[in-house]
């Protein structure tokens, strides 16, 4: 087995910005890592509305998003499947990203209220002191949202809002997407070249 191969969980909720989660999973797979992939019901709706995908056949939808050459390293889980490996703290991963993270999912995670596999997997990551990246995508934010982010951060989550930078002079929508995804990859300690780093001169 490749010693550099890592195991990650990528979860997509119903917040706007499903493309962030898809791009993250694509980058991890291209780097030959293993990905447990979770999508909420609202997340599937965003696939249809924002990515313009036919989600009536979810398997075909995922085949369209992920190259067949990488699919052996991709495991899709039903959110009702609590027998999945990521539901247990005895199963070791190298981190989890909820990208994008809706305010409803944030609230569930921050308050330890696990009603499905996605929320349970995040709870497991926190209790095992592993890396949990939350990428909230909402604006404006009310006090409840901010308090939940603070509560999650105090309990070990890493908050990376979907706020693209502009110092790398983005020219396309992909540049903006890649900036946010690159920040998540940095937090997961995964090498990438998705954006030009400040002071790199490249």
From TrEMBL:
It catalyses: dimethylallyl phosphate + FMNH2 = prenylated FMNH2 + phosphate. It comes from the Bacteria. Its EC number is 2.5.1.129. Residues 8-188 form the Flavoprotein domain. Dimethylallyl phosphate binds at residues 167, 183. GO terms for molecular function: carboxy-lyase activity; flavin prenyltransferase activity. FMN binds at residues 14-16, 40, 102-105, 137. The keyword Flavoprotein applies. Keywords: Flavoprotein, FMN, Prenyltransferase, Transferase. Coiled coil: none annotated. Belongs to the UbiX/PAD1 family. NCBIfam families: PRK06029.1, ubiX_pad. Flavin prenyltransferase that catalyzes the synthesis of the prenylated FMN cofactor (prenyl-FMN) for 4-hydroxy-3-polyprenylbenzoic acid decarboxylase UbiD. The prenyltransferase is metal-independent and links a dimethylallyl moiety from dimethylallyl monophosphate (DMAP) to the flavin N5 and C6 atoms of FMN. This is Flavin prenyltransferase UbiX. It comes from Alteribacillus bidgolensis. The gene is ubiX.
